[in-house]
Write a structure and sequence with these properties.
With 325 residues, the protein is α/β, with parallel strands linked by helices. The chain contains 11 helices and 11 strands. It folds into 2 domains: 183 residues, Rossmann fold; 115 residues, Phosphofructokinase domain (Rossmann fold), CATH 3.40.50.
Length: 325
């Protein structure tokens, strides 16, 4: 491939607060460094269907404070097929897009890796996911805002829990990672967190139930990572059966967690990562995710950020245990 002149940018998968800040950053840093920028609407599906627009600095004015993504987002079944990816590549050729910046999570970057390998195409990934589950970066775009949203919701729920002496199981997102649940539990002063990295058995359930009840007169907050088999409803049913004397409620926060104006931390992170993506393209980097570690931009190969499990700091479990007595 010859000299890169035009960069395409898209958002894919679930939306995350700060995606707009990342789009703005890629657009303005790209134009500053002499590239043309094309926004691609509706993720990989839009790339397949040729939904593109040439972006100027004006197109991204005033979006840094907005949640969601102005480029829209979608999950594309067609992109999972060789035929769909071929059509996406043809769009890149037709629109004269020489490189892509893909903002998304694990699934989005997995698709980027396959596309890059099949067509020898330069792609830079930005970790846009509230789950904070991508290896190679201390934080992902949207994670901090979502923690603050959950914290605000749980603070309100605790008012009701205390007033009615109830036990609340609050289910949060996170897929197969417990970062949101564990850290928001600490931030909210919850009695326990149930996370994939430290699955709770019957004895542990009894332990934190008794500990929380002694502390706060039958009111108790437990943060639970979403799970199709062992979510908040599952644990609430167990308490009803094993501790029938207690008033139990469930609050599933759902997509409420994704929305809202991004926090200052997410705006700064997305801005630095966007500039880092353009710099990576200038340097000839390809097929890497922009990570942020120890306050510095790093390049993480797709093969590492996707396939390597992000280490979970088990010390956080000890912190919550000691503070919830």
């Amino acid at each position: 491939m010859g000299k890169i002149k035009t960069i395409g940018v898209l958002t894919s998968g679930g939306d995350a607060p700060g995606m707009n800040a990342a789009i703005r950053s890629v657009t303005r840093a790209g134009i500053y460094n002499g590239f043309s920028i094309k926004g691609i609407y509706r993720g990989y599906e839009g790339l397949i269907n040729g939904e593109t627009k040439a972006f100027t600095t004006e197109d991204v004015s005033g979006i840094i404070s907005r949640g969601g993504t102005i480029l829209k987002t979608a999950r594309s079944k067609d992109f999972m097929t060789p035929e769909g990816r071929q059509r996406a590549y043809e769009t890149c050729q037709r629109e004269e897009i020489d490189a892509l910046v893909v903002i998304g999570g694990n699934g989005s970057l997995s698709g980027a890796r396959i596309f890059a390998e099949e067509f020898d195409f330069p792609i830079i990934g930005l970790p846009g996911t509230i789950d904070n589950d991508l290896y190679g970066t201390d934080a992902t775009i949207g994670y901090d805002t979502t923690m603050n949203t959950i914290m605000d919701c749980v603070d309100r729920i605790r008012d009701t829990a205390n007033s009615h002496e109830r036990i609340f199981f609050v289910e949060v997102m996170g897929r197969e990672a417990g970062y949101l649940a564990q850290n928001t539990a600490i931030a909210c002063g919850a009695e326990a967190a149930i996370i994939p990295e430290d699955m709770t058995d019957a004895d542990q359930l009894a332990e934190f139930m008794h500990r929380g009840i002694r502390k706060s007169k039958k009111s108790c907050i437990v943060i639970v990572s979403e799970s199709p088999k062992c979510g908040a409803l599952y644990y609430a049913d167990r308490v009803k059966k094993e501790f029938p004397g207690f008033d139990v409620r469930v609050s599933i926060l759902g997509h409420l967690q994704r929305g809202g104006s991004p926090s200052a931390r997410d705006r700064i992170l997305a801005s630095c990562m966007g500039v880092g993506a353009v710099e990576a393209i200038k340097q000839g980097q390809r097929n890497v995710m922009i990570g942020y570690r120890f306050n510095d931009v790093v390049y993480v190969p797709f093969s590492e950020c996707i396939r390597t499990d992000k280490p979970f700091d088990k010390r956080l479990i000890k912190v919550l245990d000691e503070l919830s007595i």
